[in-house]
Design a protein that fits this description.
Elements lengths: L2 H6 L6 E4 L5 H12 L3 E6 L2 H13 L3 E6 L5 H15 L4 E3 L18 H29 L2 E6 L19 H21 L4 E8 L5 H13 L7 H12 L8 H12 L10 E4 L7
Parallel strand pairs: 1-2, 1-4, 2-3, 4-5, 5-6, 6-7
The structure holds nicotinamide-adenine-dinucleotide.
Nicotinamide-adenine-dinucleotide binds next to helix 2, helix 5 and helix 7.
Length: about 280
């Protein structure tokens, strides 16, 4: 086997749990981890979505199971983690990815609501904490684990006046800053157990979340674009030095690296995977 082939199977023999894996970025992460040799538990609040991605991976020759997990529900997380360990014997990698941009009706509002604060906190912050708490007893016992949180470039410093996002997205941005800080403090807490904790800050990826953001901006700032997709394309054009769309798999490649033993000396870090659109 050449060095290159070896690297493409860098997760051979490992097992992974991905939350929110049934769509968008989470699905891309599941595909990449499976391609790199991991057995993947695709979990999502929607079992149907999770099953679709698990079936796709299995049809392509990978190993995957589908599990219904709501990251706001500790009992569903505990049951899901037990199922992964029963099926695969161990859990090496956990990717808390599930996220929401706001509460019901987000796209049609030009300001945030209490519901937006509650939903983003419950899923994007407490959801990450709940997920880590569910996998950590097993990881601590084994003295091994890789946790790769999905935050956002929006959790970095606020951007300048060219930013096309409105006031309604503020709770989301705050929740993503919390996700980055959670990564820092958890890494310090569990490092002594040889558990690495890092996070990825994606940029602008065409998924259901971005479609909702684009619909919102198109409604309230129509000069940005007549459709959600036009707003998205304009954002890529104006914000990305690389001028290319990012794919869910682009995020997956970075997750695979953090999840691999090649990154065993890296912990507590937040990595932008954003085509250069935010540089800090
Ligand atoms: N799309 C982007 O440009 C972008 C940028 C930065 C960060 N992110 C982050 O990437 C992650 C994935 O987002 P996406 O863009 O793929 O969105 P998406 O809406 O396509 O996927 C989110 C998935 O999470 C699931 N989910 C929602 N609530 C859940 C819950 N309580 N428990 C379990 N699963 C739940 C949904 O069913 C869905 O399958 C999120 O954390 C998001 O904040 C996305």
């Amino acid at each position: 086997m050449t060095q290159q082939q070896n690297e493409t199977r860098q997760l051979e023999g490992k097992t992974a749990l991905v939350t929110g894996g049934g769509n968008g970025i989470g699905a891309g992460i599941c595909r990449v981890l499976a391609e790199r040799g991991a057995s993947v538990a695709v979990s999502d609040i929607s079992l149907e979505r999770a099953q679709t991605i698990a079936d796709e991976i299995t049809s392509a020759g990978g190993t995957a199971i589908a599990i219904a997990i709501d990251v706001t529900d500790v009992a569903s997380l505990d049951a899901g983690v037990s199922r992964v360990i029963d099926e695969f014997g161990q859990l090496d990698i956990c990717v808390p990815n599930a996220g929401v941009v706001g509460s019901q009706g987000f796209s049609s509002r030009n300001d945030f609501t209490d519901g937006d604060w509650d939903a983003t906190n419950a899923v994007n912050v407490r959801g990450l904490v709940n997920t880590a708490e569910a996998v950590l007893p097993h990881m601590r016992e084994r003295g091994y684990g890789k946790i790769v949180n999905i935050a956002s470039q929006g959790g970095r410093a606020p951007r300048g006046p060219d930013v096309i996002l409105g006031r309604q997205i503020i709770p989301y941005l705050v929740s993503k800053a919390a996700a980055i800080q959670w990564t820092h403090v958890l890494a310090q807490d569990v490092g002594k157990h040889s558990i690495n904790v890092n996070c990825i800050c994606p940029g602008t990826v065409w998924t259901d979340i971005w479609e909702a953001v684009g619909e919102n901006r198109s409604m309230f700032e129509p000069e940005l674009g007549a459709t959600s997709r036009e707003v998205f394309d304009a954002a890529v054009e104006t914000r990305h030095p690389l001028k290319v769309d990012q794919t869910p798999e682009d995020i997956g490649y970075a997750v695979a690296y953090f999840a691999s033993d090649q990154a065993s000396e890296i912990t507590g870090q937040a990595l932008n995977v954003n085509a250069g659109s935010v540089l800090s």
